[in-house]
């Protein structure tokens, strides 16, 4: 068992590494982001966000009727070719904020009626985000913190969030290394994501929903967005998650893939939206497998109007 002193030393060591040679993500770029160097994530250590507002389009237990207080961070270490949030992940859109300003954003979102605080793509800012959450909690802030991630992050970095994050909302994008290489230049993604999700489940345990309003209070919801012509890989992912975690986690199966830009020219197989028949097959597969704790999407969700507006600064 590791005592609190050892935990603090481990966290401080990771923060020191972040200041001098970044190793938060498996890209292992070792850029001195604190000194202004730009990492593979596209960012220095100066924290930037692309949007902070109530978000109504998450899973029902996250958004509900109140909305989730979503903070979208700029940059991303994964750089998926089909990214729906390209404007902030690769496009440079966003504004710089301090840790103290982020804490104030938490309060502002709470004042707007947010059910929770939803931190989107913050892996490359984990030390700063952990500091902000810690400060907020010390000041009596009580909304649950949801950590929304691609899962392409080191376990050691996630441990900086232990005791601070209430709910993890990770992706499980790929099961095959070849697919991960083609669309994210990350053949190690399946291995990295499996380890990351295991750590998230270790930290948060089984899903706990509020008995009165059904909002999530603790646990892990793993998302998979079905890509066109990738039904078999999607089934592999659902099988892996169910066989590994059973109904201790929720699985969110998404059909909202939207072709953007010239993606269809560069990757012809991704030129179209997901066919309803393919998505229905995935849902049927999950049901037949025994999955009970799951979310699915209804109606027309694959359209650019579902992609939020981001800050232009």
UniProtKB/TrEMBL annotation:
Its cofactor is [4Fe-4S] cluster. Residues 62-292 form the Radical SAM core domain. [4Fe-4S] cluster binds at residues 76, 80, 83. It comes from Wujia chipingensis. Keywords: 4Fe-4S, Iron, Iron-sulfur, Metal-binding, Oxidoreductase, S-adenosyl-L-methionine. Binds 1 [4Fe-4S] cluster. The cluster is coordinated with 3 cysteines and an exchangeable S-adenosyl-L-methionine. This is Radical SAM protein. Belongs to the organic radical-activating enzymes family. CDD domains: Radical_SAM. The keyword Hydrolase does not apply. GO terms for molecular function: 4 iron, 4 sulfur cluster binding; metal ion binding; oxidoreductase activity.
